[in-house]
């Protein structure tokens, strides 16, 4: 049997494509969590992004408006979360769960009129270069702008947290909001900003699903990817580069198990479907088992409300 | 240039408590000022107002005749007021340098140079690139001081700076503070330790229950006069009578080791000691040298080899705290609100927590509330806990009252051995005196104490024998009479 090297490249590219929404949502949530806020509403924000993007694309016909509109929708819904948890000091976990339920519900309602409408083709970049390189050509070229953005994001996030002043402030707030506040840092403002950024990235992840990955609206189309994104953040021990690795493993196994099912490998389907989840968790646990590093990268105040007593 | 700081008629009222009642004070640079008072006297509130953390209800602050509007910590920084907080305001998981650059507007390189200069000038040596959680308390404090010095402050406020320091670190700090003062920085030193005031300061202001009760020069005061002003009544000094030496061994620790999986804990190496009945063994050391691990091993929070701990002729190394209590051991851990009591639970519920079997607190799995309440009331009256409401949540008790409640809870079952860890940490003079008296009383009743403490004065006052823990190893056990605080200090620093 001759394996076409470009076919392998295509498979890898499809794996990367399936990892895009996970990377986007995880990197957004990572910033949120690094500031000490646990937002379990990722799934909800993603699906809101998905329907907003698709609806705006259908109504306005503009892809740019649709993409930014989806991010804005993510920001708006996360503003609700920020207002509740930071201003009204509600519990992060309960509020986040409510956000997911709310998002799924409202997206289904809005989405009623958009079921069955075909999506638009999303422009891809460097299409012409695809055939110039064997194997690498299909991997590197011919993808949407969001795809390239997603694969840059973990490195930018890592740089942002480690090397920039604002990144330092985000980590400081997540480490000890009390100390940060005593240092004159506006904890609430930082946390608002981080929550809103997380919302924007989840919104973008959703828009990628409904506009680029499978260009159509299906109710509940995020299918738990928001939860996977959340798990990736934790199992990567808040490290953006490990999120990339985790997302690739998860995406890869998801694609491969589809192919295995298609070929008819005699392994129970249930096991194959569960495989990506199990392997991703095992791998991330193994590469992150240094307890010293975990201690240093875990935001100490994660999920705890901050009150300023005055 | 001369710096003049004036506090004018400052009042801050919290629900049910006047933290600062019309306080007016004036400070001039060139002197070191002590702000003295018991816990809850209002001194922390006052300095938090100066550093912009708390906004006063009334009153004004003037720096060199300019009225300051201190609405946030950054306002204080802008006006050259620096503060080192009692509970460090550091970010544990960030590196020292990251901690310092976070509130600085300078470039990395120039800041690094500046920090190096400061460290050289005052003889500090700290690795700037390790995370803060790897530093000792003394080093953390230096980081806080450097953070203030970077901004070349006019005023430097130190809030209870020595509560976590060793003798040596304290004298180093005092030298630095004197140097700062000579350089024209106005220093306000908050403490409840009288000895330090006498040693360091030029002028002293005493606060009591939110009010300023006295301002005076140090040369006109002495320890007794200050103590009386602070407490508002005459304090008796307590002294331990020399106990008859007993040879009746109660607990014996043999070759006890503990290796932690957490890299931020200290491993215990080859611990050997014994305590006789009626004796108090003091264990000194700089915090973070294995004290909390030792406490946990002794209390059974960490289980060790069965034969490593022999208590009353039983091997109990593998028993948990509850089982050890059945053998008449009692424990008073360091962190009153996190380890000893559950803050959200009521007083009587907390009392019930350490008594599962021997008491009749629980019948067939149901709580016998009347019995527990009766018992709690007895503790409250026997141990002088200043409340009559046993339904009060424990978090609303003051540190002193909570500690009395905990010691009372432990002692009312009449244990043979009490193991306590920093029992008077952060308490005021009155409460410390009471706890010390209680501990002496236990020894007089021929019961034993293991006292793990970072307060050398306390150890010298209460112990019959003293050992020093350093990096998880115990020094040889010395008789308390042979020991001086200087000698302890040297051992605590790791010398032989």
Describe it for me?
The complex is a heterodimer of chains A (310) and B (496). Chain A has helices at residues 5-34, 42-60, 63-87, 92-111, 136-140, 145-163, 165-175, 177-182, 187-213, 225-235, 240-263, 269-287, 291-297. By secondary structure, chain A is mainly alpha-helical. Chain B has 496 residues and is α/β, with parallel strands linked by helices. Chain B has two domains: 4-231, P-loop containing nucleotide triphosphate hydrolases (Rossmann fold); 249-492, P-loop containing nucleotide triphosphate hydrolases (Rossmann fold), CATH 3.40.50.300. Chain B is 33% helix and 25% strand. Chain B contains 17 helices and 23 strands. In chain B, strands 13, 16, 19, 20, 21, 22 and 23 form a seven-stranded mixed sheet that branches. Chain B is globular and about 70 Å long. The model of chain B has no long low-confidence stretch (mean pLDDT 87). The interface between A and B is medium-sized, with 23 and 28 residues.
Label this structure with key terms:
heterodimer, A: 310 residues, mainly alpha, 13 helices, 72% helix, 0% strand, B: 496 residues, alpha/beta, Rossmann fold, seven-stranded mixed β-sheet, six-stranded mixed β-sheet, 17 helices, 33% helix, 25% strand
Summarize the structure in short:
The complex is a heterodimer of chains A (310) and B (496). By secondary structure, chain A is mainly α.
Distance N terminus to C terminus of chain A?
74 Å
What's the mean pLDDT score of chain B? 87
Work out the number of β strands of chain A.
0
**Global mean pLDDT of chain A:** 91
How helix-rich are the residues of chain B, as a percent range? 25-40%
With helices defined by DSSP (H or I, 4 residues minimum), what is the helix count of chain B? Answer: 17
Terminal CA distance of chain B reads: 47 Å
Q: Give me the secondary-structure category of chain A.
A: mainly alpha
The percentage of residues in β strands of chain B lies in 15-25%
Determine the structural class of chain B based on helices, strands and strand pairing.
alpha/beta
Q: What is the H-and-E element order of chain A?
A: HHHHHHHHHHHHH
* CATH fold description of the largest domain in chain B: Rossmann fold
Strand share of the residues of chain A? under 5%
The CATH architecture of the largest domain in chain B is: 3-Layer(aba) Sandwich
By CATH, the superfamily of the largest domain in chain B comes out as P-loop containing nucleotide triphosphate hydrolases
Under the CATH scheme, which class of the largest domain in chain B? Alpha Beta
Q: How would a crystallographer describe the biggest sheet of chain B?
A: 7 strands, mixed
Separate helix tally of chain A: 13
Main sheet record of chain A: none
User: Unreliable segments of chain B (pLDDT under 50, ≥5 consecutive)?
Assistant: none
How many distinct folded domains of chain A?
Answer: 1
